């Protein structure tokens, strides 16, 4: 069973349509399923029945997993069995009757503008690492890109004179502008900070480096963000995605066109963008009135 899972994960990685984090989620979810099935005496995928999957989902509920997590497991399971069926490895799909639990999405957590400013001012600009951290936070807030996209940036992706970056996620590439504050912070980092982190070592064209002189990782950025959140006295737990949420919310609050924000953030559906207005009913009505042809 593990061999088929390994082939499936390699297939998804080769397709390039999913982000690295999505592929890792698929892998974790399906690994948990395979362990459960093995414990039930199921030794191959074509022996899996509907009741096996239903009981696995029930076990997740008994563990106290959130509805969103269970829904993600079901998506992972359905995608895998569809792959197996299409590839001729199965004669039927036991996952088609799985029902995702209903769950109410909470509005995304966002920082206030005061909290954002405090966070952006937290890094110490006197050290190479501080210059890098300032540049990363400013660029993240300026563009709203995902952290995986931020740490994947290379030097050639930065077009400083024109004020935009080339951002790639899976097979999609988009051009994202950034403002003067981010430009100034990145300029300082490139001129005064990056060589200090590189320390004479040879490195690829990675834009943001860690203390080893190699590419900064998502985990490294997350630790750095938590550190500065504490220093900025931000009470609530924040994640790298909180910054992305905050960019969309702040743009919309300041009157940005919803379609433009959708394009900037790389949202496939305008509904994803509009959820950032749920806390501001008056602004949501304003956007609707201005955008709907029969409002």
Determine the fraction of residues in helical runs and give it as a percent range. Answer: 55-70%
Please work out how many helical segments DSSP would assign: 13
Rounded to an integer in angstroms, the radius of gyration calculated over CA atoms is 22 Å
Main beta-sheet strand count, sense and barrel state: 3 strands, antiparallel
Looking across the biggest beta sheet, what order are the strands in?
Answer: 1-2-3
Summarize the structure.
The protein is mainly alpha-helical. 57% of the residues lie in helices and 5% in strands. It has 13 helices and 3 strands.
Task: Describe the protein in words.
The chain is mainly alpha-helical and 295 residues long. The chain has two domains: 2-86, Orthogonal Bundle (DNA polymerase, domain 1); 113-291, Orthogonal Bundle (hpI Integrase, Chain A), CATH 1.10.443.10. Helices cover 57% and strands 5% of the residues. It is built from 13 helices and three strands, in the order αααααααβββαααααα. The protein has helices at 2-15, 20-39, 50-62, 67-86, 113-120, 128-143, 147-151, 180-198, 218-231, 240-253, 258-265, 270-274, 281-291; strands at 158-159, 164-169, 172-177. It has a three-stranded antiparallel β-sheet. α6 crosses α10 (240-253) and α10 packs antiparallel against α11. The model has no long low-confidence stretch (mean pLDDT 85).
